[in-house]
């Protein structure tokens, strides 16, 4: 029997019947509403944040498979971070009406202090928030989250390996729906100038003197990525078509891209400031040194739209930018690039 139907992102979500929650234990549980129709980067943020909140609140994280999108979210995240998903108790069914929903994370991408949840003693604590795009929900957990990655696959195709003779700069180029909705998408001039600027100013001398300096591009638009640099090699190219190259394009799976970053990306450039998957490419990177496009100097509808109230604009400026684009626990450089002039601003 269908429990309810709602419209989300022009798609119908059919909610499953209420879950049966009977646990004969002293455990306390934490669950939340989820942006399950979203993409993988958002999924990892929600899983990581709810795990971090559960650790702080001494609760067991609970994942309710409320509809087909929740199931898809669960399956996609498990492929990439099986260790993280294993930390959750998974139950089929939607949230029972008997469980109170607690307001939290009321605004997307704005960190809310979990201290307000610490005195709540209900066995089942269900939060109304979604997205949870802030590293502050999982502080000091980078090494643990790195261990949760599925790095069983070591086949990265033709992509170069970072070692004593090779330095690898990784570029994430998000296009896709960003172009249609007016978010700042990857821009070819920004990427080319940024790669050059980083190489000339931020690769340490000992690294710069390595015999090989390679650039690897990740993204969702192969034609666009091919247009960035001449003679780029795609990770799936057959060996007979291989030639010595400086630029490479990944066509591997998301799990393989994150693992590749963990093992090989000495520097990461994120060209679309709102890309959550780009954020994770940087967060998991080997070199732990990340550059990104400053959203305040980009053409982004969500940031400059006159249809957003002054209050909402303030939230974007002070929180979305600060939380999603300020990577917090690792070294970041903000590249304020206006072609042809280049400026850089170091952020912590």
From TrEMBL:
<dbReference type="Pfam" id="PF01531">
    <property type="entry name" value="Glyco_transf_11"/>
</dbReference>
<dbReference type="GO" id="GO:0005975">
    <property type="term" value="P:carbohydrate metabolic process"/>
</dbReference>
<keyword id="KW-0808">Transferase</keyword>
<dbReference type="GO" id="GO:0008107">
    <property type="term" value="F:galactoside 2-alpha-L-fucosyltransferase activity"/>
</dbReference>
<dbReference type="InterPro" id="IPR052501">
    <property type="entry name" value="Alpha-1-2_FucT"/>
</dbReference>
<protein>
    <submittedName>
        <fullName>L-Fucosyltransferase</fullName>
    </submittedName>
</protein>
<dbReference type="InterPro" id="IPR002516">
    <property type="entry name" value="Glyco_trans_11"/>
</dbReference>
<keyword id="KW-0328">Glycosyltransferase</keyword>
<dbReference type="GO" id="GO:0016020">
    <property type="term" value="C:membrane"/>
</dbReference>
């Amino acid at each position: 029997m269908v429990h309810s139907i709602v419209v989300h992102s022009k798609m119908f979500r059919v909610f499953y019947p209420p879950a049966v929650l009977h646990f004969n234990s002293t455990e306390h549980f934490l669950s939340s509403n989820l942006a399950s129709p979203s993409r993988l980067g958002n999924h990892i943020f929600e899983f990581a944040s709810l795990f971090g909140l559960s650790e702080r609140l001494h609760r067991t994280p609970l994942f309710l498979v409320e509809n087909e999108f929740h199931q898809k979210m669960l399956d996609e995240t498990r492929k990439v971070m099986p260790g993280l998903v294993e930390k959750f108790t998974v139950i089929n069914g939607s949230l029972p009406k008997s469980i109170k929903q607690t307001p939290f994370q009321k605004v997307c991408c704005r960190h809310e202090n979990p201290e307000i949840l610490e005195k709540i003693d209900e066995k089942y604590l269900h939060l109304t928030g979604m997205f949870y795009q802030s590293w502050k929900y999982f502080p000091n957990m980078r090494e643990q989250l790195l261990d949760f990655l599925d790095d069983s696959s070591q086949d990265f195709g033709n992509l170069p390996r970072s070692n004593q003779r090779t330095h690898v700069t990784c570029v994430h180029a998000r296009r896709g729906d960003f172009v249609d909705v007016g978010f700042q998408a990857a821009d070819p001039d920004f990427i080319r100038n940024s790669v050059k600027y980083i190489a000339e100013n931020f690769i340490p001398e000992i690294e710069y003197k390595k015999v090989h300096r390679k650039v690897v591009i990740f993204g969702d638009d192969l034609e666009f990525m091919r247009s960035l640099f001449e003679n780029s090699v795609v990770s799936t190219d057959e060996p007979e078509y291989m030639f010595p190259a400086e630029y490479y394009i990944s066509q591997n799976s998301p799990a393989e891209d994150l693992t590749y970053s963990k093992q090989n990306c000495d520097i990461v450039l994120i060209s679309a400031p709102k890309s959550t998957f780009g954020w994770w490419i940087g967060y998991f990177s080997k070199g732990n040194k990340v550059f990104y496009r400053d959203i305040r100097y980009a053409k982004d509808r969500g940031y400059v739209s006159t249809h957003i109230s002054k209050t909402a604009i303030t939230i974007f400026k002070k929180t979305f930018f600060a939380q999603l684009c300020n990577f917090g626990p690792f070294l970041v450089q903000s590249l304020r690039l206006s072609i042809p002039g280049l400026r850089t601003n170091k952020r912590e």
